[in-house]
Every structure is written in structure tokens, then in C-alpha cells.
């Protein structure tokens, strides 16, 4: 499976980054987003990112962007990579429609960070060809792809997607279909605990992040990272962990919920634990 034509659904920070990386491998990318103007915004973000990479010897931005084709609905392709919001019913609807639109031998992948792959597979008639392909933000910079096998994902599908991840210049690591997989089962409780430390007045945000950065050699502190991921996404993932693992210790910290309720979603809304221009 060469996946010469890839349909990316969702042109936000993850979908746009995925489209950029796939286009950079020379594949044809069809980019779809239901929100008006989202694809154009996504392409502009890609242009800026590619510009930064070109300064360091990366490919010509316009060459890469020539592989990206905006589309106004789902279209047939060899592979779909879905990167819409972290809401199970929205994702299930995309998988149902993709199953009707893409050829029967196409693979349907989700960039979900926590929703069970088997739930998405159940919305299709090809559960053996449904898989998780979980990229990390910012996609052009982060080398990991967490490949998540649903209960019915075939060996052939898992091998093809693992090979594709390598061909995109990423390092694949395979996980099974548990809530939050591996990455978010580790990361989200860490972030949530940092928010509790802030909520209880243990330290100021800058101090919490400095302790994690310098103390554990993390590139960013957990609060700055939560802002990068999106605080609404953090809440959604914690809820999947809490409900899926049946353990109240995964309940999102009230301060995280307060920020989301106030529209402070992190970088994408201009403010979260920190303010952004
Ligand atoms: N496109 C192109 N270049 C980019 C870029 C992008 N989107 N983002 C950063 N860069 C480049 C910058 O231009 C800069 O280049 P130079 O060194 O040549 O100046 C370089 O990367 C470093 O960037 P900055 O100086 O702005 O800042 P930094 O050194 O802190 O690096 C970072 C930024 C790469 C984001 C780094 O902080 C980092 O790796 N942070 C951790 C990110 C992380 O943990 N992501 C995972 C989140 S979890 C997730 O996504 C999954 C989930 O399910 C929730």
C-alpha cells in the first residue's frame, strides 16, 4: 500500500500539520474541513511553518503546497487521516461517511488522542482497515507517531501504516486500544497534576513550568504544553481516561474546566495559563 492520495479531514493545528508532512513526502493531499475558511487558514499556517523550515534548508514551501488540494467534501482516496475535534460522535460521523466515500480497500486512520479505535471502526464496514495514527504537536517538529491497533485492525493495515509513518520521516511506536493509549495515559495525569498544583497555590505557573523544564529536562513545562495542546482537548482526554478506566483520579482539575468555560483554551484562543499575541 503506497497511499499515493491521502484525504486529511480537519485543517486545524493537527490536521494542517499532518497535511504538511504528507505533502512533504510528495503524496497528493486532499484537505477537507467542514468549517468555512478553515482550509485556507490551515494552508496559511502551513506556509508559515514551511517558511521557517526553508530557512534551515527545507524544501521550497510552494513546491510542498502544490501537493495540497482543498476539497469541499470527503473524496475517494487511498487513505483518510481524520483530525477533527476530540468528540466521539463527530469522529464516528466522519468514519461513517468516509466508509461510504472511500474505496473498500482504502485505510481509514484517526489522529485521535484518546477515543477508542474500535468505536470508530464500528461505524464502518471495514474494521480491519481502521487504525489510529496519532501525531504530536507541532507535527512538523515531533518525530513520534503512535500507531494504535483496534481490536480488529489487520496485521497488513498495521504494517502499512507503520511503514508510512517511517516514510514520512517519523518514528512509529505501536500501542493497543486502551483509553488514552500510551501517550496520554502518561501525559495527561502529569498535566492535570500540574494544574492541581497551581489551583492549590503550590507555586506560580512560571515556577511550575521551570521546575519541570529544568528538573526533568522537558522542552516545555506542563502548563505551557497544555496551552499548546488546547485546554479543551486536555479536558476531553481526561474525561475519556476517567470514563474508560473507571477511575475518578482522572477527573479534570476544576481550574482546567474553569479556563475552558471562560473560553481560555490556550494558544489557539490567545490565552490559557499564559497570554499569547
Ligand atoms: N513549524 C516549523 N518550525 C517550527 C515549528 C513549526 N510548527 N515550531 C517550532 N519550530 C522551530 C522554530 O522555528 C525553531 O527553529 P530554530 O531553532 O531554527 O530557531 C525551533 O523549532 C525551536 O522553536 P522555538 O525556539 O520557538 O521554541 P522551542 O525551542 O521551545 O521549540 C517546540 C518549540 C518544538 C514546540 C518544543 O518546545 C517542544 O518540543 N515542545 C514539546 C512539545 C510536545 O511535547 N508536544 C507533544 C504534545 S502532546 C500531543 O500533541 C498529543 C496529544 O495527544 C495531546
Question: What report would you give on this structure?
Answer:
With 277 residues, the chain is α/β, with parallel strands linked by helices. It folds into two domains: 5-176, Rossmann fold (3-Layer(aba) Sandwich); 185-268, N-(1-d-carboxylethyl)-l-norvaline Dehydrogenase, domain 2, CATH 1.10.1040. Helix content is 45%, strand content 14%. It contains eleven helices and eight strands. It has helices at 13-24, 38-54, 61-65, 88-101, 117-121, 155-167, 183-199, 205-216, 222-229, 231-245, 254-261, and strands spanning 5-9, 28-32, 68-70, 79-82, 107-110, 130-134, 144-149, 171-176. An eight-stranded mixed beta sheet has the order 3-2-1-4-5-6-7-8, with helices on both faces. Helix 1 packs across helix 2 (38-54), helix 7 packs across helix 9 and helix 7 crosses helix 10 (231-245). 45% of the residues are buried. The chain binds acetoacetyl-coenzyme A. Residues 49, 52-53, 56, 113, 136-138, 140-142, 183-184, 187, 219-220, 225, 229 line the site of acetoacetyl-coenzyme A.
Going across the biggest sheet, name each strand in turn.
3-2-1-4-5-6-7-8
Shape: globular
- pLDDT averaged residue by residue: 97
Low-confidence stretches: none
Known CATH architecture of the largest domain = 3-Layer(aba) Sandwich
Kindly provide the radius of gyration, computed on alpha-carbon positions and rounded to a whole number of angstroms.
18 Å
| Distance between the amino and carboxyl termini | 43 Å
Assigned CATH class of the largest domain: Alpha Beta
Tell me the major beta sheet: 8 strands, mixed
The portion of residues assigned to helices is 40-55%
Give the strand content.
Answer: 5-15%
Instruction: Summarize the helix and strand pattern as letters.
Output: EHEHHEEHEHEEHEHHHHH
Number of domains: 2
Amino acid at each position: 500500500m503506497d497511499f499515493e492520495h491521502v484525504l486529511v479531514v480537519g485543517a486545524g493545528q493537527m490536521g494542517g500539520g499532518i497535511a504538511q508532512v504528507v505533502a512533504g513526502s510528495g503524496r497528493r493531499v486532499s484537505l477537507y474541513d467542514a468549517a468555512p475558511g478553515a482550509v485556507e487558514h490551515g494552508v496559511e499556517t502551513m506556509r508559515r511553518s514551511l517558511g521557517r523550515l526553508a530557512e534551515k534548508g527545507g524544501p521550497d514551501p510552494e513546491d510542498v503546497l502544490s501537493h495540497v488540494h482543498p476539497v469541499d467534501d470527503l473524496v475517494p482516496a487511498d487513505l483518510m487521516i481524520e483530525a477533527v475535534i476530540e468528540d466521539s460522535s463527530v469522529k464516528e460521523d466522519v468514519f461513517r461517511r468516509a466508509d461510504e466515500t472511500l474505496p473498500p480497500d482504502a485505510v481509514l486512520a484517526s489522529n485521535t488522542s484518546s477515543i477508542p479505535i474500535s468505536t470508530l471502526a464500528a461505524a464502518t464496514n471495514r474494521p480491519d482497515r481502521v487504525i489510529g495514527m496519532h501525531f504530536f504537536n507541532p507535527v512538523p517538529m515531533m518525530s513520534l507517531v503512535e500507531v494504535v491497533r483496534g481490536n480488529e485492525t489487520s496485521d497488513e493495515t498495521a504494517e502499512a501504516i507503520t511503514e508510512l509513518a517511517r516514510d514520512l520521516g517519523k518514528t512509529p511506536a505501536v500501542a493497543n486500544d486502551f483509553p488514552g493509549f500510551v501517550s496520554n495515559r502518561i501525559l495527561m495525569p502529569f498535566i492535570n497534576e500540574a494544574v492541581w498544583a497551581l489551583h492549590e497555590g503550590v507555586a506560580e505557573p512560571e515556577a511550575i513550568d521551570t521546575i519541570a523544564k529544568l528538573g526533568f529536562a522537558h522542552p516545555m513545562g506542563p502548563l505551557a504544553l497544555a496551552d499548546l495542546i488546547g485546554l479543551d482537548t486536555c479536558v476531553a482526554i481526561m474525561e475519556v481516561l476517567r470514563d474508560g478506566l473507571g477511575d475518578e483520579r482522572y477527573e479534570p482539575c476544576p481550574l482546567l474546566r474553569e479556563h475552558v468555560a471562560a473560553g481560555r483554551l490556550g494558544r489557539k484562543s490567545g490565552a490559557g495559563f499564559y497570554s499569547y499575541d
